[in-house]
Write a structure and sequence with these properties.
Elements lengths: L3 H25 L27 H11 L4 E6 L2 E6 L2 H9 L2 H4 L6 H6 L13 H14 L1 H4 L3 H14 L6 H18 L9 H16 L24 H30 L6 H10 L8 H32 L1 H15 L14 H14 L8 E2 L4 E3 L2 E3 L4 E4 L1 H5 L21 H7 L13 H18 E5 L27 E5 L2 H12 L2
Parallel strand pairs: 2-6
Antiparallel strand pairs: 1-2, 3-6, 4-5, 7-8
């Protein structure tokens, strides 16, 4: 059969789409207020060809400084992008006006082609999203998060037993984080190495980190391209999406089905998913449906592992670059434990420097530099500028967390800033978690997991750079891939027991398993 009708249809559809965009732009331009400043675009494409291909947050911040603005306007072939560069603007728009700014853009690549519509982090604002959010809040508000301390503590203890012989620190962190979240979400046991559930999560999430960046794929700006056949020149995104969709569905289905088998056998352990199903069967109803429980468990599975791995991986890079910080942290731990026991969650108030290390890691490395974009569902006004309805809102968390007015010398890793931080600094730090109704609901559990793991490692180990074949220390790279989540490159390092007492603690923790 001839492909000419298909091509004709595509070209006609694309032409109609451009006509619609021009009409939409003309209609929007009738507003009496100017749009926010931004780089001048070209006809039809707008700023499409100006978009950075990596480290977008740095370019956005540079443009904001050039135009002396805290909100930046970009036109991507008729789609309006608003970049928010300051914490004050983010609070005004995303928090105080959250009813208008809590939506999500269409995200054609992620949701429609890759199959991530199950993840409420990418859902548009509405009843389905509210049900998922309610389930997450019930499970992970500050008090409820404490229920998961035993799983987090057990995973941290197992990690420190493996570190002396580990040849891939990042892989060990991934095993620890995966073990934690799989136990919490599904009640499943994991293998100490090459666990299938941990590997499934890694394979499923990796493509999302690339595709979730605004502007990463043209189909997000021109959704009509989703109808282009896979064989068409330039349609490699369709082939990628087909492959990535299978990985996402495997992550969505595999652990949940394993948990269901345990429930049928009567051997299921308590977990978010199994407890939720029990509530559903007992007649609670409401948000407790199998679809909701399965989707939220998968969201936890996806979101809970990579952020923990990235935070700890970046923290150790910073400690290797600043060895004196390791000694300070160890002195703080020893002053409380006398070296006679491993840290526990009850020590948190006594370990302010450990907490400061975690906070400074989240600030300095800005793990979610531009977060997941919001959607403005009505036309709005800010500082005399018109913000068009349907605009994609991109909060530049990286810029907010490196604001030199709030954080002196922001490009220096300095945890001391959080030991005597004022309210302004603490408020700005919240940019690490997101904004408004879209703020990360798992932030309390995530912080706790990083905190107990870091304290456990430093209680028993000195950390040193590995030595290369040339006899020189191997410097970990401070570069990271540009994606929706900053993630460290793999690097070698050595974990050396601090003393015979530390070795004894490791043996005792192993015997307690």
């Amino acid at each position: 059969m001839s492909n000419i009708p298909i091509l004709d249809g595509l070209f006609v559809g694309f032409a109609l789409f451009l006509v619609y965009r021009l009409y939409q732009k003309r209609s929007n331009s009738q507003g009496h207020l100017p749009l926010p400043p931004g780089p001048k675009g070209v006809p039809l494409a707008g700023n499409l060809w100006d978009m950075p291909v990596g480290y977008e947050w740095e370019t956005y911040h540079k443009w904001c400084k050039e135009f002396d603005t805290d909100v930046l306007y970009l036109n991507l072939a008729g789609s309006s992008i608003i970049v928010i560069d300051t914490y004050e603007a983010a609070i005004e728009l995303l928090d105080r006006r959250s009813s208008a700014y809590s939506g999500r853009p269409r995200m054609t690549m992620v949701n429609e082609l890759m199959g991530w519509e199950f993840d409420f982090a990418f859902m548009d604002y509405g009843d389905r999203w509210r049900q998922h959010r309610k389930l997450m809040h019930q499970a992970f508000h500050p008090t409820a998060s404490e229920n998961y301390h035993p799983q987090q503590l057990r995973a941290a203890r197992r990690l420190i037993q493996r570190l002396p012989t580990a040849d891939d620190f990042i892989a060990e962190l991934r095993q620890m984080a995966g073990e934690t979240i799989i136990s919490i979400a599904y009640g499943l046991d994991t293998q100490p190495k090459n666990d299938p559930y941990v590997e499934t999560a890694e394979k499923g999430v990796h493509p999302l980190l690339e595709a979730g960046v605004p502007g990463a794929f043209l189909v997000d700006s021109l959704p009509v391209l989703k109808y282009v056949p896979e064989w068409f020149p330039g349609a490699s995104f369709k082939r990628k999406a087909k492959e990535w969709r299978l990985l996402a569905l495997d992550m969505f289905n595999r652990p949940f089905e394993a948990m269901l088998r345990e429930v049928e056998r009567g051997t299921a352990k308590g977990s978010f998913a199994s407890d939720g199903l029990q509530k559903m069967k007992s007649g609670l109803g409401g948000v407790y449906t199998e679809e909701n429980i399965k989707s939220v468990a998968s969201t936890m599975y996806q979101a809970g592992s990579d952020t923990t791995v990235a935070t700890l991986g970046f923290c150790v890079i910073s400690l290797l670059a600043n060895p004196s910080l390791i000694k300070r942290a160890q002195d703080e731990i020893d002053s409380v434990t006398d070296g006679a026991r491993l840290p526990d969650f009850g020590d948190e108030e006594s370990f302010p420097f450990i907490s400061a290390l975690v906070k400074e890691t989240l600030r300095y490395w800005s793990l979610a530099p531009i977060a997941v974009p919001h959607l403005l569902n009505i036309e709005d006004e800010y500082k005399g500028y018109r913000l068009p309805a349907g605009s994609v809102i991109v909060p530049n968390a990286w810029a907010m967390l490196h604001n030199e007015v709030v954080y002196s010398d922001p490009f220096t890793f300095n945890p001391d800033r959080f030991l005597d931080s004022d309210k302004t600094m603490e408020n700005h730090f919240n940019a690490a978690w997101g904004f408004g109704r879209r703020i990360c609901p798992g932030r309390f559990m995530g912080f706790a997991s990083v905190w107990i793991t870091l304290a456990s490692i430093l209680a028993v180990y000195d950390i040193e750079k590995d030595i290369g074949p040339d006899g020189k220390p191997i410097e970990p790279s401070h570069e990271y891939r540009s994606s929706i989540l900053a993630f460290p490159q793999r690097y070698p390092c050595k974990f050396i027991p601090r003393s015979n007492t530390a070795k004894q603690l490791l043996l005792l923790s192993h015997d307690a398993e």
